[in-house]
Amino acid sequence: MGAFVAKMLLPTVSSLVFLPTASVAAKRGFHMEAMVYFFTMFFTAIYHACDGPGLSILCFMRYDILEYFSVYGTALSMWVTLIALGDFDEPQRSTMTMFGVLTIAVRIYQDRWGYGIYSGPIGSAVFIITVKWLQKMKQLRAVYPEKTVYTQQVGPGCCFGALALMLRFYFEEWDYAYVHSFYHLSLAVSFVLLLPKKNRYAGTGQNAAKLSCFTLCCCVCSIYLAMSKTQKLKLLHFQLSCLM
């Protein structure tokens, strides 16, 4: 019985791998990306917790809403990671990021389980990055970016990303709990590998921008304030039961 419960909780626990990913992104100066990873971790963990035994009290939102934001956060994480990899200048970077935020929201609202929810953002981002890098190569008449980016970031990151998508769409029927947990792990590793080592817009030294825990707590508080009174009472009851 204990092994069965642990297996049911595995997708929830494995969702927490996005927390180290958010930490790495914040350390590299990619604060917006870190916020997206944290958002994805939060809703994915709560969404899977609603399927777990004895954790339905954590469902402070309707199940379909948690499902929507879980898928939306994952797709958006892919988009912002690839846009960061492209190393675009402003205002192109913020424009393309917002374009992804809006279009992905509409696409996932229409269909949450088709291949297009991930292939659309990935394909669009890869096309944009390819066009930019080819233009740079033409201007510089040399390989752009450096070869180490291809060997240490793009290659390994794409391999883990492809593995994650294969697990997600083709192998989950084998054993959902284990396969989906490895999907979370592969996706998180892919984000870490694809994300550049440093955000050139984050500043350096004393002028470097920092993402504090207070900012992340504000995100959680805003979600809490959006909850209904009944949902808040359920969450409070769960917290008290954990302390007893």
UniProtKB/TrEMBL annotation:
The keyword Acetylation does not apply. GO terms for cellular component: plasma membrane. Residues 1-15 form the signal peptide. GO terms for biological process: myoblast fusion; regulation of skeletal muscle fiber development; skeletal muscle tissue growth. It is found in: Cell membrane. The chain crosses the membrane at residues 35-58, 65-86, 115-134, 154-171, 177-196, 208-227. Keywords: Cell membrane, Membrane, Signal, Transmembrane, Transmembrane helix. It is a multi-pass membrane protein. The keyword Transmembrane helix applies. Pfam families: DUF3522 (PF12036). Belongs to the TMEM8 family. This is Myomaker, myoblast fusion factor. It comes from Amphilophus citrinellus (Midas cichlid).
